Amino acid sequence: MAAQAQQPSLLNIHLKLLGFTLRSITPFPNCPSVFNLNGKQISRVEVLGVVTSRDHKPGRFLRFTIDDGTGSITCVLWLNHLTSSFFATRQPATLRVISDLSKSFADDLRLGKVARVRGRVSIFRGDLQVTVSDVVIETDPNAETLHRLDCISLARRCYFG
Amino acid sequence: MQGVKFLTVSDLLHYGHSHTGSSTPGPPLISDQTPQPPPAPSTSNPNRELEPLPQLDYPAILVGTLRLPTLTLKCTLWKCLQFSDDSVTVCCDIVGFDPRAIGKKINVLTWNFIISDHLSGGFLEIVKWDLSDSSHGLSRCSSLVVDSFPLVSNLIECVPKTSNAKSYRIHGIIEAVSPVSIIPCSVEESSSNQSINLRGFQVRIMTCECKLCRYEESVRVLFEATDSHSFTAPVFVYFCGPAWCWHPVLTKLIGNVVTISGLKKKLILMGKQEPFLMLVTADNTILHLPRLLKKRKVVCGSHEGTVKNVYMQGMVVELDEEVWLLLTNQSLMPSHGLRIGAVISIRNAHFVVPQFSWAKFIILGACVNTSIIVKSFSPLKTRCLIVSQSQSQLGNFIEALGFSTRLWVLLLVSCFQKTFSGILSRKELLGSSHNEGLVQMFARSHLHSSVFRARHGVLMEFIKHESCCTATEPYPGNLKLVVPISSFIHHCEIFGIKALLPSDNILPVSCVGNYYQRSKRKVFRSEDLGIILVGLLKISPSSGRLQLVDMTDSIDVVIPDLPSFWDHNSIFEVIDYFLIVEGMHESDLPELSSDDSSLPRSIFQPQGFPSARKSNLKIFVYFHLRNATCRNRPIYPPIASEDELNDTKSGKFHLIYITRRVRPTCHSMKLERSVFAEAIVMPWYLFLAGKDGSTHQDKVLIDCTVGNHADHSSSKRQKIDCASTLSGTCFKDNFCRCGDQSCLRTSFSHEIPCSATIQGVNNFIFTSSGTLYRIKADAKIKVCKGRAKKFFLAFISECDLKYQLLQIGGVYLMKHHKEGPLCNIKNVSLKVVTVPITPGTYLRRLSFSSEDLTTDKSLHNSLCNEVFTKDQVLAVASGSSISDIHLHVSSSLTGLFESDIKELRNGQNVSDANLGRFSLSLGMNTRMNANLEDNSGLLGHSHIFPARKFTSLCGDIIAVHSFDQGSSDMCSSRADYGDHGQYGFCDRTKNFCIHVSVANQTVKIFGFVNQYLFPTGFGPGINATFHQILDLRPGVPSTLMLTSESSIVINSIRAVDETHISDGNLKRFRCRVVAVYVLVLEKSNRNCVDLNSNMQSRPLSVDIPLACFILDDGSCSWCCWANAERAATLLRLKEYQLSGCEASGYKRRLVGVQNTTRASTMHHLERILEKHDRITVKSCRSVFDPFDQDFTVTAGSGRALIGLDDDFDLVASVIFNACINTSWTVVTEVMDSNAVNLLKEHLDDMQMPMPCMENLWAREVLSVNHATEAREMLQNNL
């Protein structure tokens, strides 16, 4: 039997996933930060959709949901970079910049806006959520179409191929 | 007409200068045509500024009579219209011609007069005129008035009588007019037969066969019924006898409807062809023309253009819009008015689009049907076209070819005239009426016999137009252009510079903390260039380099199979070669303009094009001599250097092994003092009998040379040599005269018969039988009176080539002479023994093979086996494969020989290097310089080198850079490596650093040496061996130094483009920036003067020599390296809004900054770079999460910027901002191992590991159009 070509790891890739696909992934046992997608290990995703709800706790976090028409995904954008001990290992100067940027993301994430979000997948209180890394507000409606096509194409070629 | 001076032709001739004159003041009218601008001198001929004709400073009118041509006027054409006053007649041409002006006095209102000694004083170009006699004024023109012109008004020549035969009339359009030709014929007079030359020309008239034309209607009726005619039937009219002088009139009437009456019918017999019925003019022939001439038909195959240049006595005329007119037909003589700047109309020419790879243009081929009329005279002060008729073999040869091939031969003629002026005589080049010259022989050897077509003479070709047609011309696309070397260099410069630009997309090289621009190499194959090189092989007296030379210029060459001697007078034709151009992007690269036909133009131009040679553009050519053809053998018999051959073919030879080459310091461009090579005498002797030696010519040579190439002289020499050579017994007798065989046996450990194949001059191969003797160390007998084991060969300046060809590690033969310097050393106890190498001393490279000798071609075969491999590595020094003498011995010997060499090397303390933590032993050998110190007293610089190690190293050169062109000065580097002044380097030296990849490690070799130490072809992308390089810090790698004693041997040259990027394997993908791994920002030298200019188009005010981005497309991530514009795009420095900067609050902390646009971001970057010179940003955390990045930011001074600095904030903001983007479309190339090595070197310098991802080099970064991309995805079914 011919040796099967080794697939490159998707662990550090930002997978472009539609809402319903993302909602189908499950965490690997004993490793809650790594998820299983069709037998492949994944940890980071990129989603794009309309901001349908937002729960803003200034200085702490912004929890929001984005809906891409196939499912809604809960995202959390941390705003406590300068106060939380979680970021203690980070450079203070970099954190300052990140904190400012995160605040500006929070300002930009208004209801009805189309947001492109990259982040890590995690489980919070049994629910799947995306811990936001960066946010881009898309103004071109074609971006949404292209993202959907990308998700389908990548799923066929790469994630489920 | 008051104040207007009336001039005569005599006045013009007395004036004595070419000029233009007019009856009205002001600028002269050029013609009735729209004045054409003079051709731009820059494109037509850069060496000549064309001036307008000077104008007479007073209004004047020229009065004279316009006449038909006569044979009495001094004119080479015999068919010019004439203009005369009462005493003097000159050739003339006229625009706005009207036949009624013939024989009349006319007033020339505007004219050009061109003085010419070849004509009767000069040539008059009549631009504007009227009839003197107003009663004959042309103002009453009407289409209904028909003028009649008897063609024979005054009998000039005796004409065959046509008796009372029926006369005919034709009405039609003149389609073509043949040139005037002369037919010898005999006329039957009542008394006797008289032989005369019948002068005449033919006219093809498309006639009408309608009722009107068939019946005897009046001529006026014919002209009136313009709509009832259908001109479809071709009729040939022969204008002979006195009517020949109407040739210029008929030529000007092409395309007009005429009626000719009074014609006779004649049955013409031409050769073996069927009889042909033709109309012939007679005494009463009359030409009828409507007064208002109206062109009825655009003659097919016509073209109108401005003359840009005239070459080769008018045989080639360059017109505007890349059209080249060929006027090689000797019977076709265009008007003298065909001058540069004139507008000409060409009718009935052949349009040919040649498929040459070296130029794109249209050829207009003129044949006997072609007529050329000057439509507008040139306002420029240019010479008249004077065409002289001369019969030569070459002329006939050219005429027998198709038009594109014809142009190729004309280019060849022009090229050879330039290339070999002074070397070969005109007769040798062009031949004579009886003999072929070099050009013809050369051309014939490149042309298939099918391209030659039979000629039929003017009459036949005019009637049977298809016979001169080029429709059947074979495809000439394989014809390569032969160019003078000056043109070749000019072409290469244009070609090379275009290929090297834009060169900002080249990875810079980092060295000792600085970034240096690298040179870029491009390799072109000869078949892509479509150019053949022809020249002599010489050593440049200035650079000492081997060059291909002609009378126009010279070009450096690399010839891997160059024998030790060749005929310096041989003209070599090089078809298969590689052109390598190496240059560095500099703002002052010459701006060379070129168009599709600049190459042929440069060949035709007498002076060629000036070369803009720049020191930053290196050009050389690589070829094998075995593929070159010697071209001048029929003219000059091979001058085989007899002394050299005799010295080689027989006798006793010492075998010496070259250990190193020593070149004194301060080697100037010219070798002014001796250079040395250290050699060891091997315990071997070769005896060549030369007895059964036979002479063979190389097959290649036989195939390619032309003429009788039998080399009787060499056979003769061979005979003499055979008679005079020593037998094997004699050789032994020299050792010992006691005659005791046991003495010999005890002296020689081996006696091995062998066969030698000897490379003669110009690919001649000789063979000889011989014996190899290995002498025992304790042998009683002695061959030489006194002999040293080790010695120095001292090369005087005349022997520089011998020195250059000497290869370290090579075994050479030196002839044994009893009283020779090598065999007669008086005091062998001396530490240093020198053997002078003079022009009379011959060193022959020896090679061995253990094959059984079956044919005498083995030497050549061994050479021929080196074909270019697919990976295109051009071998330069390939060990034993290139030699002057090749010995075929039994396999047992080769092992013995190798063990002897190994022993000798060990005797020289050669050992593997141990250079610290790097394992470089693979390609590196180190030798203690103890021996050198012993010997260097001879060389006078024993004090130069401290007790350090000399090393040899072999590896791939990644980059070569000079410290003088780096981004910062060399002070720090100089400090690192000590004061090199103590080593005695002179001011002419330059600071170089060579990055060499050895066993997957990069080694740097510094050099404070004259660049002439570098052999031709040296540069990035080659594999080279460095001999005698100084190990400055033993134990620490990368601190090696080239010294004046060092020598570099190029082993191979990569023929693929040296861009440090793979061979065009482009990847295109849509991705996002995830992280920035490395970023180097530098202060730019460019000043951005206008901040308000377009952001996108403005040049960057910050240099980005290197940046590494982690890109992710949802399926994979890559390490994408970029610089300059591409890096700036990915960093989003080209966008207006810097969200990261704004968000970071950086803006708020800067007082006075109102808006954070790209300009202000750049302004801030500029400001901090002004302060720090350079900023290096290194990622020190994750590269997979945009906001999980931390950075180390270092300033140029080495100081780390910390988080408290505003500058740090800005840099961090720039990087985060790069990650907050949508998508980019990035076009990348996969980087090859060389490039990855280079990057690894960069990262090593930064103490950073190489990311474990595929490395790509960004070629292009484009923003994404979502709609377009989505549409494409849908169309491609996702």
TrEMBL record, chain A:
Pfam families: tRNA_anti-codon (PF01336). Keywords: Chromosome, DNA-binding, Nucleus, Telomere. Coiled coil: none annotated. It is found in: Chromosome, Telomere; Nucleus. InterPro entries: NA-bd_OB-fold (IPR012340), NA-bd_OB_tRNA (IPR004365), RFA2-like (IPR040260). Gene3D superfamilies: Nucleic acid-binding proteins (2.40.50.140). Its main location: nucleus. Residues 45-136 form the OB domain. The keyword DNA-binding applies. The keyword DNA-binding applies. This is CST complex subunit STN1.
UniProtKB/TrEMBL annotation, chain B:
Belongs to the CTC1 family. Pfam families: CTC1_2. The keyword DNA-binding applies. This is CST complex subunit CTC1. It is found in: Chromosome, Telomere; Nucleus. Residues 17-52 are annotated as: Disordered. InterPro entries: CTC1-like (IPR042617), CTC1_plant (IPR028262). Keywords: Chromosome, DNA-binding, Nucleus, Telomere. It comes from Hibiscus sabdariffa (roselle).
